[in-house]
Each structure stands twice: as structure tokens, then as C-alpha cells.
């Protein structure tokens, strides 16, 4: 019995679309009503999560979609997963929801056990955790940790703050509020808050109209595909981008305290970084005393055929901070150096210090992933699906440009010739019963749950073949 059959014996056997357009009339009515109290303009359709099951998402009109988007890569185990429902009904969950503690001041007696269940699945080399509320929050908390660490190294970890620092910080001026930068990459997406917005460089709409820090963006490698046929050109591209990184660190007007990178830029177009590039960044950041932050918000928790995507790079030494959210249903960052714990209390702090209810779910997700070998399944199914997509690419090369993600689980993407063609492609896929997302301007990205298996891949490829043959 497959893990999907174990979880979802009543999962639909295939998609079913009963409306002639999406969103259908019921979704349109519901979204219009919702729009009176909430900005519903980005919505594709209104979901019916009570009826959704496993790898199938049902909408308000009764359309049943094979879901390869999974709430923007956030559903690890499919809809209405019985193991997560069991965790949601536990006594510790009731306490977390009803008596939500202010964890910094009044941690619950079960908090250490809850966190230890997440730490079991931390990236290799990481031993500590700090919790947040979302992916953007996780990244901003990581920046705070990086800045405090960077300044503590310069000042001396046990050295008290000076009178001048205490005075000037209240005036938002130096040295209490130091001029420091975080280096990120063009096409990156790290969130939509203020500091995370300053390191985001994917689309203008993500950050228009709010102030930004004067922080630099280096170039992320643009590879030629297939990778095996373009090793020399791609190594040259890596070296070109690495030189830019080191030049920025050496010449930026204010010190670069931290560097943040996605091992695969997701919103920015599913751009993959090589093992060589990620390790070379580790070498550069170590050389210059820059904190190395890996953003695993979208790539983490098994979807790339490793629990954490950057583990493909086997970094030595490990990254300083690794942020997470999405498929873990919780958020925060992992670290290993105790000096990333601020030298005084109340520096990395807020009322809730994360959400224990979401932490409980994260621990349950990690355990299910491990017990059911879902990372291995994702790797196997991804290879199976990629081979089928390569065959389609040979038939329709114009519709499958830069097919990428080989041996990276189901973290697969390709490009269409133009944004309009990509958008039409996604629309036709929905009408064919497959909910698929895009990224950047003309890329298609696949983000199914970890319970997606070969039978789902076959259904998707059949629908994809029908769509592409008609366009």
C-alpha cells in the first residue's frame, strides 16, 4: 500500500471540472462577497477545504483539481491529513490554542518537548532554533540575530553597551543604530516586510511605495540547460557571480554583515544554485566575517529530494542561520553557534515568540515525513516525472524551455516563450483539472505535496500533453 492510499483511501481517482470557466459562478459570487471585507482580487477561486482530500483541491463550484501548487508550496502531506488532524486534536494543541502563552516570559512546561520534535529534523549541523510567525518574519528575525552577532564580535561579546550607544539608538543614529547591510541577490524573494522587502528583488509589486534600506543585490547565476551539457559555461557563470559578490562585500559603503540566499530562487523563476556556488559563498562569507543565511522557506521540508535543499551542497562549515516556514506550517530559523543567542535578554523577543500550535503541527509533519520516507518518495517521483517531461520537451521544445529541477525531487520548472503564453498555459491547465502555479514572468513551477506519487504524475502528464498539443 502506498503512503497516499494509507492516508487517503477515498482520494479522488482523477480531476473533475464541471464549470466552463475558472473561477466558476459560485466562486465568483463568494469572492465578490468576500471582497467587501477582504482584498480578494488575487484569488484564483474559492476553496472548499472540507471537501478537499489528499492531492486534490475542491473549489466552491465542485471542481476537483489535482493540486500541484499546494497553497504556494505550503502543504506537505496533502489536504485533511489524518495524522495532522490527530495532532490538532491533542491536549497540548488545545492548551496552545486556548491559552496561547507568551513564550518568552511564560513558556509552557511542554515547550521544550515541542521544540525538540522540530529540532529532530533540523538541517545537518544545526542544533538550536528560534521561532517566528511567517517566512518573512523568520528572515527578519535572522537579520536581527546576524546584526547583533556581528556587532557583538566587534564590541566583545561580554562588553556592555556604551553610554553613547544607549543614547544614539534612541535617536536612530550611529553608533547605537549602526550602518550595516545584508547582501542578497537579484530576482530573490525573501518576504514583503520592511527588511525582507529590502532583500527582495523579484517583482516591483512586492515592494513598491515603502522605504527600503540601502542594501546591495548581487547577481544570481543564470545557467544553461541541460546542466550536464553545459558544465563549462555554467562554471564560468558561477565564477562571474562570485566575483561580483566578493567585490560588493569589499567595496560597499557600509559593512556587509550578512548574506542571504535561496538555494533555489522560487518566486524569482526557479533559479537553481549549484553546489559549487553555495560552497563558494560559504568560503567567501567565512573569509570576510559575513553571516551566511540560507533561506529555506520554500525549498525546505523534502520537496527537493533532501529534507533541506542546501544539504545537496554539503556545506563546510554549515551555514550560520537557516530560515524555514511553509511546508513546516511553522516558522523560524535554525543555528548552531550559541553566540547567535543575544548577550542580553529581551533583544530577540516579542509577545508570543512564535506559535506553539504551529510548532506542534511542524513536529508532526516532520515525523510523518520521516516515518513514511516521504523525502525518498519525492526524490523517486520527481525523477519519474522529470523523465516524462523531458520526452514532452523533445516533442514541444518551444513550450518547455529551460526545463530544470532534474534530481531535485518535484521542485521542477520550465519556461514559456512569453508571459502571456505562460498565463494562458496555466489557465488551460486549470480547465484540464490541474492547479499549477507560475513564478517570475514566464515560468511554470511544480509544487505538489510530498504524498504526490507516480499515479498523480501520470494524470498530470496526460493533462499536460492534451493542453500543450492544443496550444
UniProtKB/TrEMBL annotation:
Enzyme Commission identifier(s): 2.6.1.19
Pfam entry (one): Aminotran_3
Catalytic activity of the protein: 4-aminobutanoate + 2-oxoglutarate = succinate semialdehyde + L-glutamate
Cofactors: pyridoxal 5'-phosphate
Keywords, comma-separated and alphabetical: Aminotransferase, Pyridoxal phosphate, Transferase
UniProt-listed InterPro entries: 4NH2But_aminotransferase_euk, Aminotrans_3, Aminotrans_3_PPA_site, PyrdxlP-dep_Trfase, PyrdxlP-dep_Trfase_major, PyrdxlP-dep_Trfase_small
A GO term for molecular function: pyridoxal phosphate binding
CC annotations in GO: mitochondrion
Keyword Transferase: yes
Principal EC category: transferase
Top-level taxonomic group: Eukaryota
Annotated coiled-coil segments of the chain: none
Gene Ontology biological process: gamma-aminobutyric acid catabolic process
UniProt xrefs under NCBIfam families: GABAtrns_euk
Family of this protein: Belongs to the class-III pyridoxal-phosphate-dependent aminotransferase family.
Subunit structure: Homodimer and homotetramer.
Annotated protein name in UniProt: 4-aminobutyrate aminotransferase
Amino acid at each position: 500500500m502506498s503512503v497516499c492510499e494509507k492516508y487517503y483511501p477515498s482520494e479522488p481517482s482523477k480531476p473533475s471540472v464541471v464549470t466552463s470557466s475558472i473561477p466558476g459562478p459560485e466562486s465568483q459570487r463568494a469572492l465578490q462577497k468576500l471582497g467587501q471585507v477582504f482584498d480578494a482580487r488575487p484569488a484564483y477561486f474559492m476553496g472548499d477545504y472540507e471537501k478537499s482530500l489528499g492531492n486534490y483541491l475542491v473549489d466552491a463550484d465542485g471542481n476537483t483539481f489535482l493540486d500541484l501548487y499546494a497553497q504556494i508550496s505550503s502543504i506537505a502531506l496533502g489536504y485533511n491529513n489524518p495524522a495532522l488532524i490527530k495532532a490538532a486534536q491533542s491536549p497540548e494543541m488545545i492548551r496552545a490554542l486556548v491559552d496561547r502563552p507568551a513564550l518568552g516570559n511564560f513558556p509552557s512546561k511542554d515547550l521544550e518537548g515541542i521544540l525538540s520534535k522540530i529540532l529532530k529534523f533540523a538541517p545537518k549541523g544545526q542544533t538550536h532554533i528560534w521561532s517566528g510567525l511567517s517566512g518573512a518574519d523568520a528572515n527578519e528575525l535572522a537579520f536581527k540575530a546576524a546584526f547583533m552577532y556581528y556587532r557583538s564580535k566587534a564590541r566583545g561579546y561580554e562588553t556592555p553597551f556604551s553610554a553613547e550607544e544607549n543614547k544614539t539608538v534612541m535617536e536612530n543614529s550611529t553608533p547605537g543604530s549602526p550602518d550595516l547591510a545584508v547582501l542578497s541577490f537579484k530576482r530573490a524573494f525573501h518576504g514583503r516586510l520592511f527588511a525582507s522587502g529590502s532583500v527582495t528583488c523579484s517583482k516591483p509589486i512586492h515592494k513598491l511605495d515603502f522605504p527600503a534600506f540601502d542594501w546591495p543585490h548581487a547577481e544570481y547565476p543564470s545557467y544553461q540547460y541541460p546542466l550536464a551539457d553545459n558544465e563549462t559555461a555554467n562554471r564560468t557563470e558561477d565564477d562571474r557571480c562570485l566575483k561580483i559578490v566578493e567585490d560588493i562585500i569589499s567595496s560597499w559603503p557600509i559593512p556587509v554583515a550578512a548574506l542571504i540566499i535561496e538555494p533555489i530562487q522560487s518566486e524569482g523563476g526557479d533559479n537553481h544554485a549549484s553546489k559549487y556556488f553555495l560552497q563558494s559563498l560559504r568560503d567567501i562569507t567565512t573569509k570576510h566575517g559575513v553571516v551566511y543565511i540560507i533561506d529555506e522557506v520554500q525549498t525546505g521540508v523534502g520537496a527537493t529530494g533532501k529534507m533541506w535543499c542546501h544539504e545537496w551542497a554539503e556545506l563546510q562549515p554549515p551555514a550560520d542561520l537557516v530560515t524555514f516556514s511553509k511546508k513546516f506550517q511553522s516558522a523560524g530559523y535554525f543555528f548552531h553557534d550559541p553566540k547567535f543567542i543575544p548577550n542580553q535578554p529581551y533583544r530577540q523577543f516579542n509577545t508570543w515568540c512564535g506559535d506553539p500550535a504551529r510548532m506542534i503541527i511542524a513536529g508532526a509533519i516532520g515525523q510523518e515525513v520521516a516515518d513514511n520516507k516521504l523525502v525518498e518518495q519525492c526524490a523517486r517521483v520527481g525523477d519519474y516525472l522529470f523523465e516524462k517531461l523531458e520526452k514532452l520537451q523533445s516533442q514541444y521544445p518551444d513550450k518547455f524551455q529551460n526545463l530544470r529541477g532534474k534530481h531535485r525531487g518535484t521542485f521542477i520548472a520550465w519556461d514559456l516563450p512569453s508571459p502571456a503564453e505562460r498565463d494562458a498555459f496555466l489557465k488551460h491547465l486549470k480547465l484540464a483539472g490541474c492547479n499549477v502555479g507560475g513564478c517570475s514572468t514566464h515560468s511554470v513551477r511544480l509544487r505538489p505535496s510530498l504524498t504526490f506519487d507516480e499515479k498523480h504524475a501520470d494524470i498530470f502528464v496526460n493533462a499536460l500533453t492534451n493542453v500543450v498539443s492544443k496550444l
